[in-house]
Specification:
Low-confidence stretches: none
Distance between the termini: 44 Å
Number of helices: 6
Strand order of the largest sheet: 1-2
Shape: globular
Mean pLDDT: 87
DNA sequence: CGTATGACCATGC
DNA sequence: GGCATGGCCATAC
């Protein structure tokens, strides 16, 4: 099986905490500099047909537009975790976006952090 | 091995 | 905001 790549992708996705979402591109960047968002999408799609990897919170991976890619069910799961979508079906990535993996964990497993610099760190608090 | 396809993304209009 | 185009790379056929 050539799951090395997919396994790493799943591992990163498993590290997205509940109530937060990451984009496909974000996950790709964390897994490695040569990984593309398309591959992350492929890895998620593979879960549908064959899921050798349990406990992968695939619903927390959405596209860069802040919208879900797989239909209403995914959005439903995220709303159960506390996310809020507007009328157009998009969510606020500034508010619910993943900040990146824990630095120590990332270093230990050879993953990258999000170069981001996002600063303002609005850090929820929404309530 | 060539072509088509995809749970994507950035850019341009 | 929406729509079209090109690029990306692994899989499936």
């Amino acid at each position: 099986m050539s799951n090395t790549l997919y396994s790493r992708i799943y591992e990163v996705v498993r590290h997205i905490p509940p109530g937060r979402v990451a984009t496909y591109g974000q996950v790709a960047l964390v897994v490695g500099p040569h990984v593309t968002a398309q591959q992350v999408g492929e890895a998620m799609a593979a879960l549908r047909d064959d899921s050798p990897e349990p406990s992968v919170p695939w619903q927390r991976v959405i596209n860069a537009q802040g919208k879900v890619s797989t239909g209403r069910y995914q959005q439903q799961l995220l709303e159960q975790e506390g996310l809020v979508f507007n009328a157009k079906g998009s969510t606020d990535l500034q508010r619910f976006g993943w900040q990146g993996p824990d630095p120590a964990w990332a270093a230990a497993h050879g993953f990258s952090l999000l170069s981001h610099a996002a600063a303002d760190a609005p850090q929820l608090d929404l309530f």
